[in-house]
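Batch 3, record 17
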Amino acid sequence: MSNESHPAMIGPGGRPLRAAVVARIYDHASDTRSLFLTLADNGAIHFIPGQFISIAIPLSDETRTRPYSIASHPEDGAPYEICFNRVPNGPGAAWLFERAIGDAIGFSGPFGTFSLERAPAAEAIFIAAATGIAPIRPMIRRAAAGAHLAMTLLHAAPSPEHMLYRAEFEALAVRDAGFRFETMITPEAETYSRLLEQCDRRWVRGDTNRARHFYICGAGHGVIALRDLFRSAGYERRAVHYEQW
Amino acid sequence: MAKLRVIFENGAPERIVEFDPAKAPFHHDGKPGSILDILLGHKIHLEHACGGNCACTTCHVIVKQGAQLLSEAEEQEEDMLDKAPGLTPTSRLGCQAVVQAPDAEITVVIPKFTINLVSESADEQ
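Prediction for the assembled complex:
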């Protein structure tokens, strides 16, 4: 496959893009899908757990740039997994849902500073809302691969089928006594109010320990509300990491 | 009318955009009326790998004139800028800095490293 075979291989601003090919498609739920991408040139994406690639979405009148976190692990190489859900009026996800096996996708990157190269030297709390689990999945695997202090993953999703990678995290919790996996099934509209209530009760009012590190990812302003909860409670600004989509 | 002058540190020709801030948004990425929104709406490319969502620093600009005429940086922008290469006291993210005054005159520099960061990531791997 050549770059010329796909109209989006020249990105916005005339910048050349890398070409990926859809190797596999997996539907977690009717509205949530993973694409597994290989590179047309058989190269690799050298990324840090948590980073995203920037995909060129060719629309009728222009090419837009939209970010998608890499949900797979750097150590595994290709295929690289991105997962996403349908977003009302979201042309990026709509276009990705139309891709078939063998289709080419133009991208650049990786980018992003919401990333984790190794476990922090502190207790770590990972908080994911729905597909916000995508960047956190490789972060946890990287952190768990070496010596680490206590780690907790709190994943909120609207249904069990939206609890992506559940079996994987349950298995990790069984073999790694330092990792706790907790799930919260909640209607989408209540996701952040429930996360805020639980985080406030456990990690703000629950004790005076302010040495934890937080890694928060999800869509909407609730991510910012969680950030503010922890920072205003006395956690160091740089100990509260977040990515809001 | 407000005026936005854009200097490209990589030597590309300077551009000047005249616009009415009240007519924002001009495009669909970044905050309405932001430097990114204005430039894209006038067909001047500024990188924005995260789609203008304040999740990366590829739209980093250095404000040379009129910094006080832009919206104040919020905490999320400051968190991102903390991690930006080549940070200066007048660095802003193009997707977040909104031109507010109707007659503002703003000059920004698009740093070389912002441009290179993106092109290298596309080329090197």
